[in-house]
Amino acid sequence: MQLMMYIGNDLIESVKVQADQVQRPGYLGQFKRNLKIKYRELIHSNPNITPEFLVANPQLQEQAVSKK
Known about the structure:
Strand content: 25-35%
Largest sheet: 3 strands, antiparallel
Distance between the termini: 22 Å
Order of helices and strands: EEHHEH
Radius of gyration: 14 Å
Mean pLDDT: 88
Number of helices: 3
Helix content: 25-40%
Structural class: alpha+beta
Low-confidence stretches: none
């Protein structure tokens, strides 16, 4: 699984996460916090920018595409 950070339509960074840990409270929050700190200057450069996060499993998506 991957946690992806977007700003607008731009993918900023993708981080691997463990699928079995996603439901644990605070697990994704620590990754989101770290990404926000890492890209603080980019986020603060425009007050209208808000980072958005998406969790996806690219392996399942690849399997679905290959079956078509």
